[in-house]
Amino acid sequence: MSMANLPQSIAAESVRVAEGAAHVDRVLAAMPLPTCRTTQQRAEAAAAHDAARRCRARFLDAYADQVYDEITAGRSRHLRLDELVEAAADAFPGLVPTPAQMALERSRVQADKEGHEIDQGIFLRAILRSGPSGRHLMTAMLRPTDRALRLLPEFRRTGLLVTEAVRLERRDGVARLTLCRQDCLNAEDERQVDDMETAVDLALLDPAVRIGLVRGGEMSHPRYQGRRVFSAGINLKSISAGRISLTGFLLRRELGYLNKLVRGLADDDLHRWLPPVQKPWVAAVDTFAIGGGCQLLMVFDHVLAAADAYLSLPAAREGIVPGAANLRLGRIGGPRLARQVILGGRRIEATEPAAGVLVDEVVPPGEMDAAVESALARLAGDAVVANRRMINVAEESVDDLRTYLAEFALEQALRIHAPDVLAKTGRFVERPV
Asked: In the 3-class helix/strand/coil scheme, how is 30-66 assigned residue by residue?
């Protein structure tokens, strides 16, 4: 790409951004890895980063829409998050880290990263803050993934997808999506997010599917041998090892499969007058839904929980932000409950009255299978999709989610590089493979 066609003022400011980034590179090149730096070296690195980030923020405050239009060829290209930041690095040197810099970051444990994802967070916050650019990016993230489109003919033929993290089976018009990371109690990492988005895409694309079900599979973990578990939340080992990224997990998860569960898929027809394809979704919680698993419940149309299950959002204790739960839990449960759960770490038993804001039915564990089938049958009506669409429009507008995720993009990037998070996840340290 070239900036030859951009106004001279933008080109001049872009040069200053590039110069600031080059200065950071020179400062860091003379230093050891972050965990080996002296107090003075850490202060010098922080000062260089701060100056460059202030310059980036000023530039994006003034020119975010022009930058986005240049990268996307006047919004004619629909780029996903990872594609967008890579294109930005090419078109505007120094605005975001280069692919080579990010590859080096991915090779390091979290404590030894330079924090380049913070620079991506500054960029993505600016894009999402803009109504025109942010909505275009959200639409790009609602399109089916290339992986799902490749797998669709086989799934339509067989009704089966088996990946490392999930199993998707179409049976009697139901897309039965089973979380099957047996070794880690369905703790989410980038592999699980990718597999989940693929499965959700296939369920939405397949016309033989009328409704979706998400449930945890039986575990091989010694403590829960043979029991179904919904989700243990984010994989802390993966954070410590540096394998939880902003564009591959933290923001992709919210703008990708979670948003697709709510809003369905976008397509290439700019003049389509019919609403996008959506389908109702049911969740069945066995044992527990912790962290990201609990976040998931807030986007389902019907949630069942076993009477011995519990729900929690321990993100504040872990030092991070629980996705869009801060936006959604206060709306559905009220601000006091949201603060108790998110800030105070309150655990909610499925049989508590407070669980009613997240769970529709509480069922004896031995009766879960029958209750799930009954719930699926109740949501099979022809008008369910139209009405769930209108409920979602009333509850959470696209712009509400966009403005929240704009701030989340930077806040979460800052948190995963914060000293307290590094200290808490350090006990799970595991070298990248």
From this structure: CCCCHHHCCHHHHHHHHHHHHHHHHHHHHHHHHHHHH
